[in-house]
Design brief:
By secondary structure, the protein is of the alpha/beta class. It is built from eleven helices and 21 strands. The protein has helices spanning about 15-30, 45-50, 50-70, 85-105, 180-190, 210-225, 315-330, 360-365, 380, 415-425, 430-435, and strands at about 10-15, 35, 110-115, 115-120, 125, 130-140, 145, 170-175, 195-200, 225-230, 235-240, 245-250, 255-260, 260-265, 265-270, 300-305, 345, 350-355, 370-375, 390-395, 405-410. The longest helix is centred in the first third of the chain and has 25 residues, at about 85-105. The chain is globular and about 70 Å long.
Length: about 450
């Protein structure tokens, strides 16, 4: 079929971070592009994920900072908190970002279809309205969706999709899961004065992060009155007439009482009902779209980027994959994505951040490693009467002195880690850090003073 015979050069299903970037860059290369989105433009990160969640983190921090203000000489009277005011401010910003992403597509002349689209052929999609559209290439960028555990009464739980719309601030919150989403919301609700209980089916939180950071976070959050119940599977949830919940756990004789049960037990690629299997696209065990290094599926005209591939579920990765796809297919650039040394953060309270290998991973891979640490009380906490201590950890290859990983927990750890990640990605040595003059007084200086 000739180029002109296709309705579009590219049809994108999903207008999240990866889909919008791919659409914009492809259009800039001269492609005729259309995108279908069944909900709102912007995707998980903008609409119901990292951006509104980070705003809630900022809002919750004031509870602690206003208390500390008195120790710095400030008098703060009649301190009150209005959940609805914070919630609505966050949702207004989501509206702003939705409009900004929409404007980006419009200014790049990308046609938008605000309805569901499914794949009905290697080069054909069908809109919910029934219209069929052809394209030389189809890009799947539908992201991921919260996993809902299966147990009696699970319908009474909410996910991270609904938590931003709570009518009132709950007094008692039970959170299922111990990953980054669970612990970020645990910190938010705890800071806002809710009683928080984290329930996990295993005994490990934040799997994949360095053990020393995980242990430190557990100690600090328990001291902040967050309760944990490990190795506790959910048996059933009962909803009472007053709307409260009785949550029954395996191995526990007494039910947990809660006003809200938030399940944060992972996210699954959102491929259900897309029709991919019907046209021969191979999917993995979790429904993820299987792709090669260029993002192409086993059907040559169909590609996928972002969380739907379940390679790395991070917004910056989806954006890079979307750009690389568009540059490669429409711009003639053989752009490839590097998946090593990806920095990550958990906006818990306190936050932690990491890049590179954990100590355990480094020992398994390199054998002999050196570990340097700084266990210190951040100056910010001194007037707060909090005994919480920050922990910075550097893992170094003993043979080459190359820094293999940096792991941090403490105030502003993610902001500091971003710059340090450049050094790890560049393969710098511990000596390079040692040769750098400390910026004093700061928490970041601990990175060049590690012993």
């Amino acid at each position: 079929m000739s180029e002109a015979a296709w309705d579009y050069d590219l049809f994108v299903i999903g207008a999240g971070s990866g889909g919008v970037r791919a659409s914009r860059i492809a259009a800039a290369h001269g492609a005729r592009v259309a995108v279908a989105e069944e909900f709102r433009v912007g995707g998980t990160c903008v609409i119901r994920g990292c951006v509104p969640k980070k705003l809630l983190v900022y809002g919750s921090h004031f509870a602690e900072e206003l208390q500390d203000a008195a120790n710095y000489g400030w008098t703060v009277e009649k301190m009150t908190f209005d959940w609805a005011k914070l919630r609505d401010a966050v949702l207004r910003d989501v509206d702003r970002l939705n409009a900004a992403y929409t404007s980006t597509l419009e200014s790049n002349k990308v046609e938008r279809f605000l309805e569901r689209a499914t794949v009905v052929g290697p080069n054909t999609v069908r809109l919910a309205s029934g219209r069929e559209i052809t394209a030389k290439y189809i890009l799947i960028a539908t992201g991921a969706w919260p996993v809902r555990p299966s147990f009696p009464g699970a319908e009474h739980a909410i996910t991270s999709n609904e938590v931003f719309h709570l009518e009132t601030l709950p007094k008692r919150v039970v959170i299922a899961g111990a990953g980054y989403i669970a612990l970020e919301f645990a910190g938010i609700f705890n800071a806002l004065g809710c009683h928080v209980t984290v329930v996990n089916r295993s005994e490990t939180l934040l799997r994949g992060y360095d053990a020393a950071l995980r242990d430190r976070l557990l100690q600090i959050t328990m001291a902040r009155s967050i309760e944990y119940k490990f190795n506790c599977p959910f048996e059933r949830v009962e909803k009472r007439e007053d709307g409260s919940l009785a949550i029954h756990l395996g191995g526990q004789t007494q039910a947990l009482e809660a006003d809200v049960l938030l399940v944060a037990t992972g996210r699954r690629p959102k491929t259900d009902g897309l029709g991919l299997e019907d046209v021969g696209v191979e999917l993995g065990e979790k429904g993820e779209v299987l792709v090669d290094a260029t993002g192409r599926t086993n059907v040559p005209s169909i590609y996928a980027v972002g969380d739907v591939t379940d390679r790395v579920q991070l917004t910056p990765i989806a954006i890079r994959e979307g750009q690389a796809f568009a540059d490669r297919v429409f711009g003639g650039k053989d752009t490839r994505i590097s998946y090593d040394c990806i920095p990550s953060a958990v906006f818990s309270q306190p936050p932690l951040a990491a890049v590179g290998l954990t100590e355990g991973e480094a020992r398994n891979r390199y054998g002999s490693v050196k570990v340097y640490t700084s266990d210190f009380r951040p100056m910010k906490n001194i007037f707060g009467h909090r005994p919480e201590r920050g922990l910075y950890k550097m893992v170094v290859d003993a043979a080459s002195d190359r820094v293999l990983g940096i792991h941090m927990i403490g105030p502003e750890a993610p902001e500091i880690l971003q710059a340090a990640a450049i050094a790890v990605k560049a393969g710098l040595t511990k000596a390079a850090f040692d040769d750098t003059v400390a910026l004093h007084p700061s928490m970041a200086e601990e990175l060049v003073l590690l012993k």
